[in-house]
Amino acid sequence: MRNHFDFFVIGGGSAGFNAARVSADLGRTVGIADSGAELGGLCILRGCMPSKTLLYSTDVLHLAQNGRTLGLRIPSAKVDMKALHARKKRIIGEFADYRVKALNSSRYRLFTEAARFLDENTIELASGTRITADRFMIATGSKVSVPDVPGLRDAPAWTSDDVLDLDFVPDSVIVLGGGIVACELSQFLRRIGSRVILIQRSAHILRDHSPEASETLQQAFRDEGIELFTDTKLSRIQRRADTVSVSFEHKGKTVTKRARHLFNALGRSPLTEGLNLEAAGVQHTPQGRIGVNRWQQTNRRHIYAGGDVTGPHDIVHLAVAQGELAARHAFGVKGLRPADPRLLLNVVFTDPALATLGWLDAELTARKQPFISASYPFDDHGKSILMEAKRGYVKITAEPAKGRILGVEVVGRDAGELIHCFSGPIAMNATVFDLLKAPWYHPTLAEIFTYPLEEIADKILQKR
What we know:
By secondary structure, the protein is α/β, with parallel strands linked by helices. The chain folds into three domains: 4-144 and 269-330, 3-Layer(bba) Sandwich (FAD/NAD(P)-binding domain); 160-266, FAD/NAD(P)-binding domain; 341-463, 2-Layer Sandwich (Enolase-like, domain 1), CATH 3.30.390. Helix content is 32%, strand content 24%. It is built from 15 helices and 21 strands. It has helices at 14-25, 42-46, 48-65, 81-103, 160-164, 180-192, 211-223, 277-280, 316-330, 361-366, 382-386, 415-418, 423-427, 432-436, 450-463; strands at 4-10, 30-33, 109-111, 115-119, 122-125, 130-138, 142-144, 172-176, 195-199, 227-229, 232-240, 243-250, 253-259, 261-264, 268-270, 303-305, 345-348, 353-358, 372-377, 393-398, 405-412. The strands form five sheets. Strands 1, 2, 3, 4, 5, 6 and 16 form a seven-stranded mixed beta sheet that branches. A five-stranded antiparallel beta sheet has the order 17-18-21-20-19, with helices on both faces. The relative contact order is 0.11.
């Protein structure tokens, strides 16, 4: 069989698979190399889907355990880790099987082995097979980072893979990090019954979100019994018998905490080792992140890249869009538009959940762009009160002249669902006045948006 392709993809995850799919739809010959122990990509196997499966179960568990606040008498609600683990494996297995069947279809030639560049037009597989292509797509994903903290590389530490595969309740866990993975899985561990100590180096957890959003979640964590330390400097990690100790600076003092297990959630870095990018002349940072233009092209214009290897955000729907865009651009599809930063969605599946869309106040202030904003709390809203979901708020930011919606922030129950009330409107450049023409059913959580919408509309009208 010929070993030359119109389009060759390295990596079969969200960005790579969708680039391959679109290329095949365009009638091109497509090859895919994926060296993972399992096919499917990070999202399906060790990311979004397994984590949200477990988080949903423990959300139900938490509601049952707190049934008294809803007037319910539920004698006992406990996690069955064997059953929870089995359910997760079954669900993820179904998702993965679908992707494996797609990858093994006649639409592509699949090589389940590692690939490395020999030059900008040729790759070599681990078996020694050489392949050439007119265009390439690099979509090899990311790996867990291990920062230079004394003792971290020597102390056995869990990664998110290990936490997602637990079939028992850990006695105690120290979590290093305060990003999305650290926060979601810390709450999961606490709710199944583990003692959890969360240590974050920045002043707030979820530092990419607003301080108000972070502080809301920090208080929720503390109320649930998570021992939380922010604004720290890690100094040493030591393993002693069956415990691990972590020493860090906090408020001018050295603090040492001990637990049975250590969970490294200090972030991820691009997985580009072994690709021999230098041979292809592809530019990248010392950390391995590949630079691309707005069409996902590297400095070698026939070599594209997308997903976690490029960023700027390691988000699945963005990786899918990048892969699709790269394939369409590679074969000259007309009328393409690059990703619109206004439409970047971000969701954190904690309780309360956090979700953002568009430009928020801090970004607009930094850009010196005028704006007007208004917020409303869940503890003064009918549906959230009767649901005992009173923690959090919604905030809308708009242009001060015509009221075009610039951004939305939701902190509270079902934030990841509620934020989509604004996906279409922001994409269509809608104003607060446009949204106030629409009906908002009572009583619903979504109805809370009418309050900041009305406040912004009133402020604009008063200035006219």
